[in-house]
Amino acid sequence: MFSELPLKKAFMLFEPGPVILVATNDGEKNNLMTISWHMVTDFTPQLALTTGPWNHSFHALTQTRECVLAVPTVDIAERVIRIGDCSGKDVDKFKTFELTPLPARKVGAPLVAECLACLECRVTGYLEEPGIFLLQGVQAWIDKKRQERRTFHANGDGTFVVDGETINLRHLMADKIPDGV
Ligand SMILES: Cc1cc2nc3c(=O)[nH]c(=O)nc-3n(C[C@H](O)[C@H](O)[C@H](O)COP(=O)(O)O)c2cc1C
Fold first, then answer.
1. Which residues of 4-155 form beta strands (DSSP E)?
2. Model pTM?
3. What CATH number does domain 19-163 carry, 2.30.110.10, 3.10.20.520, 1.10.3720.10, 3.40.50.300?
4. 34: CA distance to ligand 1 center in Å?
5. Which among 61, 65, 91, 98 is least surrounded, fewest beta carbons within 10 Å?
6. C-alpha of residue 109 to centroid of ligand 1, in Å
7. pLDDT digits over 67-93, tens only?
């Protein structure tokens, strides 16, 4: 039996994951923002993420047309949330949150050493309404030795789900299923 769910809460049913960091460099300094509204749009991989000019990162994204998507794990969750609660306009986020920028191979934006994985991306488009960047991944990195590998996922209300049990249903799927990372 269903009862009505307020429409303004419906996005919480579809909150994706994991929560990620978007690293940029505007030519002068590195910056980070936290993003939970993103999606993969193909295997190459292309991705889309939702943001707009109210964020400082927006200007680096539009000017340099480059960024790094970094995947944090639960051990640095508090830092990731705090990064999403201040602006690079006022704060040097790498310094304040004790994260280490590493040079990327194909873009000017930095990798984030404390993250599980990083994807160097070029911006291929921006849809002004509703504010969606389209990204092409051009170089991917993973820290295979990292012990903590659990990502975390936003519920949309300040609570988060941490990765739990993995079930393997590969045998039920057609080919083209990649091995796990
Ligand atoms: C868990 C979490 C998820 C967020 N998801 C998004 C998002 O999907 N899109 C967005 O524009 N801002 C999102 N934000 C807010 C930005 O991270 C925040 O505005 C950030 O401080 C912008 O930094 P900047 O001004 O240095 O670019 C999120 C914040 C948190 C804490």
1. 20-25, 30-35, 38-40, 46-50, 66-71, 101-102, 111-112, 117-127, 132-142, 152-154
2. 0.95
3. 2.30.110.10
4. 5
5. 98
6. 17
7. 999 999 999 999 999 999 999 999 999
